[in-house]
Amino acid sequence: MGRHYLWLLLIPFVGLLWVPFYNFHDPVLFGFPFFYWYQLAWVPVTAFLTWLAYRTYANED
Amino acid sequence: MKTELDIPALVVFLFFFALVTVMGFVASHWRRPKTLASLDEWGLGGRQFGTWITWFLVGGDFYTAYTVIAVPALVYSVGAYGFFALPYTIIVYPFVFMVMPKLWQVAKDNGYVTAADVVHGRYGSRTLEAVVAITGVVATMPYIALQLIGMATAVKALGFEGELPLIAAFVVLALYTYSSGLRAPALIAFVKDIMIYIAVIAAISVIPGKLGGYANVFNAADEAFKAKGSGSILLQPSQYVAYATLALGSALAAFMYPHTLTGIFASKSATTIRKNAVLLPAYTLMLGLLALLGYMGHAAKLKLASNNDVVPALFQMLFPSWFAGFAFAAIAIGALVPAAVMSIGAANLFTRNFWKAYVNPQVDSAGEAAVAKIASLVVKVGALLVIIYLPTQFALDLQLLGGLWILQTLPALIFGLFTRWFTAAALLAGWAVGLFGGTYLAWTDGLKPLHMLSVGSFQAMVYVGLIALVVNIVVAVLVNLVVPKPVVTAKVVRT
Question: B234, A28: Cβ pair inside 8 Å?
Answer without folding.
Answer: no
